[in-house]
Backbone:
């Protein structure tokens, strides 16, 4: 897997500067919501880690695709947090996976956020998503 990531880094750096790299990142993040990926938690985690690594080596430049990636990643994180809030008793392996998942999502959002010069947008997305989580979990727990 690391060889594949290293090759992808080289490809991204030399062949896909700027907007094309951001479109690739956006497509990877959108792929997280695919029904087959959702059924495979480890694949989900791998996609997030690869996205983070590719974002680390992409060009720092605001773009619509990059902002969409951040928005989609925060939305994906919110859905995961919401499902965790409704899960009554997660097993030991699920707790460990959730810890790895949380760290991977955090790192991915950090790497994506570093590429956007307009950080106000990121804060607005966070506020909206967390308000949504709070509202929906409040309705669940009454």
Residues:
């Amino acid at each position: 897997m690391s060889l594949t990531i290293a090759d992808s880094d080289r490809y991204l750096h030399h062949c896909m500067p700027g907007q094309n790299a951001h479109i690739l990142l956006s497509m990877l993040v959108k792929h997280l919501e695919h029904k087959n990926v959702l059924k495979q938690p480890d694949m989900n985690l791998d996609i997030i880690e690869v996205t983070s690594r590719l974002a680390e080596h992409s060009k720092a430049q605001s773009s619509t695709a990059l902002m969409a990636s951040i928005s989609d990643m925060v939305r994906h994180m919110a859905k995961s947090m919401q499902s965790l809030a409704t899960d009554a008793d997660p097993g030991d392996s699920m707790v460990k996976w959730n810890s790895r998942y949380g760290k991977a999502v955090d790192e991915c959002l950090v790497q994506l956020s570093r590429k956007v010069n307009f950080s106000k947008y990121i804060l607005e997305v966070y506020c909206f998503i967390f308000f949504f989580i709070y509202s929906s979990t409040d309705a669940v727990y009454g």
In short: The radius of gyration is 16 Å. Residues 44 and 126 are 21 Å apart (CA to CA). The chain has one domain: 2-141. The chain is about 80% helix and 0% strand.
